[in-house]
Amino acid sequence: MIFDPSGAQRMAIPDCVPKRADEASREACRTVTEVLRADLKFEGLFRFVPAELMSAIKALDPEHPDFTDWRGIGATYLVTLTAVANGPELQVEAKVYTPESGQTILSRRYSGKGDNPRTYAHQASDEIVALTGFRGVARTKIAFVSDRDAPAKGRALKELYVMDYDGFNPRRVTVNRSINILPNWNPDGRSLSYVSYRQGQPDVYVASIYEGRSANLTNGRGQSFAPSFSPDGKRIAYSSNRGGNMDIWVANADGSGARRLTDSAGLDTAPTWSPTGQEIAFTSDRGGTPQIYVMDSEGLNVRRLTTVGNWNDAPSWNPSKQYSEVAYTSRIEGGFEIAVIDLASRQVRQVTLGRGSCEYPSWAPSGRHLVFACGRGRSWQIAVADRLGQSVQTLTGGSNKNEQPDWGP
Amino acid sequence: MKTRLLFAPLLLAALAACGGHHRPPVVTGGGAGGPSATATGRDGSAAPLPSDSGPDVQPVDNDMARGEDFTVSDPETGEGGPLEDVRFEYDQSTLTDAARTLLDHHAAWLKAHAGAKVMVEGHCDERGTVEYNLALGDRRARAAREYLVSLGVDGNQLRTTSYGKERPLDTASNEEAWARNRRAHFAVSK
Lengths: 409, 190
Hints:
The complex is a heterodimer. Chain A has four helices and 29 strands. By secondary structure, chain A is mainly beta. Chain A has two domains: 11-130, 3-Layer(aba) Sandwich (Rossmann fold); 141-407, Neuraminidase. In chain A, strands 1, 2, 3, 4 and 5 form a five-stranded mixed sheet that branches. In chain A, a hairpin with a 2-residue loop joins strand 26 and strand 27. In chain A, helix 1 (23-43) runs parallel beside helix 4. The two termini of chain A are 24 Å apart. The model of chain A has no long low-confidence stretch (mean pLDDT 94). By secondary structure, chain B is an alpha+beta fold. Chain B starts with a helix and ends with a strand. Chain B is 38% helix and 12% strand. Chain B has five helices and four strands, in the order H-H-E-H-E-H-E-H-E. A four-stranded mixed sheet of chain B has the order 1-4-2-3. Classes of the chains: A mainly beta, B alpha+beta. The A-B interface holds A 153-156, 158, 179, 181-182, 197, 200-202, 223, 225-226, 239, 241, 246, 267-270, 283, 285, 290, 311, 313-314, 329, 331, 336, 357, 359-360, 376-378, 403-404 and B 76-78, 119, 127-132, 134-136, 138-139, 142, 160-163, 166-168, 171-173.
C-alpha cells in the first residue's frame, strides 16, 4: 500500500461480519469494528468512506466482496472483518483489498483468548499501518503516575500504572504505598525504570512489570531522579546529587558502572536520548533559568538548545529519525505548555493551549504523536495529540492526579 | 495543628476537675495521651494545703513546658515535629532572613539534642515541572543543612532529601498554599 499524503485515497471499513449469530460473536464483532476504526483514525494517515455511503450499497459478503460496489462509493482500500467466538476462544479475520484491481494485499487470521477483543483490532491496525511503511501504535502502552489509590486523607501516595495507548485497560504496577514517579520504558517494552521513595530516599528502580519484580539501581547513593533508557536499552541516564550537586549520570542498565556526565554548578536533570543514542538532551539552570541543553552521550560538546522563554524543562527527543525535534515543557505567559523545537531550524511550535497547565511530554514510538499531562489543581489528566498539537484526546478521567506519562513500545 | 495539640492537656485537666463525669475526649494526632493521664491522677490525690504557715502555693509541674520531651507530629502525614518548617521564595533556594532566624533556633535545639537524627526534606509548590522541582527541593534541603552545619550542628545528624512538588502540605492552588509548600521540613527521629 502506498501512503497518499494528498488525501485522495479513501479506506472503507464496513461492519465486521459475525460468522455465527450468537451474541458473543456479534459482541466481539462490534468491538473489533469500533476499535479498528478508532485506531486507524488515530494514526492520521487515512481518509475514510463515510458510513452513509457504505450503508447505501448491498451488504458485504466478506469472502466475495462486490468490488464494483466498493469502487462505486470511492473505496481505494476495503478492510473486511469477521469474527467467531468459540467458548473462551475468539477468532478474527482481517483482509485488505484494493477494489480497483480486486487484489488482496493483507490477509490475517487471529486466534486466541476472547476476553479482550480490543487487542485483535489493535493487532490488525498495526499490520495495516505497516503496509504504508509507517509504524503503528495501536499495541503500544503508556505508563503513568496516579494517586487514584491513595486514601482521601493522609500521606500523599503515588503509584505507577500502565494502560493501552487509547486509555483502556489501566493496570497498577507498583503496590508499595510510597511515592513512585517518573516512569520510563525500557525499549523492550517489558520493564520500566522509575523513581521510588520506598526506602525513604529517592532511588532509581527498574521493574519487570510482567514478572512483578523490581531492583534498586542506585541504593541510596545520593538522590536519584529522572531515569531514561538509551534506545538500545543497554544504558540508563539519570540525574543524581551523589557527586555533591545535581548532575547527569549514566550507568549500565543494571545500575553498574555509574559515571558522571555533567559537572556544572547548576541543576542538571531530565536526560533524554537521541534516536541514535549518540546524544543526550537535558535541563540545566546553569545559565540562570532552566533551559534545554544537548551534549554527546559521553558528556562532551554541551550546547544550549532553547533560547526563548525563562523556563524550559522536561525534554523528550522524538524517537523517529524522520523528525529531528525535541518536545519539552515551557512556561508561556505564566502557565506551562508543551512545545516542540526543530533541531535544524530552532523553530518552536506550541502544541497545547487552554488546557490548564501542561507538562511532561513523551513521544509515541512512531514519533507522530505526543502524550502529556494537563490539569488544574487536584485534577490532572493524560492526553494525546498529534505532533502538531491537533486531534487532542483525553485518556484518563476522575478527580485524581494522573500525570507523568511515558509512551512505551 | 501545633496549637491544638498543645492545648489538649489543659482541656483534659479542666474536664477531670469537673468531677470526672465526662469521659476525656479522644485526641487524634498522637502524643497527648501521657499528659492527660498524669493530670487526672494528680488532681484526684491533691491534699488540702496547711492554713497557717509556709508558702501559699507550691510549684506545679509545668506540663506546657514539656513539649520538648516528646515530638508532636501527625503519623499520617509526617508533618509537625519540634522543628518548624523553613519557607522559601518562589523558585528560590536562598535562605531569607526569617529562615535564618528560624534555623538559628533549630541549631540550638539540635545541639541540645545531639542524639536526634533529622531528615531535611526540600519541598516546592506545584508550579513548574516535576523534574526541576525535584532538583530545586534538593537545593533547598541542602541550603538549610549547610546553614545548620555552619552554625556548628554535627553534619552526621542531618541528611537531606527532596520531594519536589510530589508531597504538598496544602493541595490548594493559591498563593497561600504555594507559600506553605515552598519549604524545608525537618523530620526528626531519635
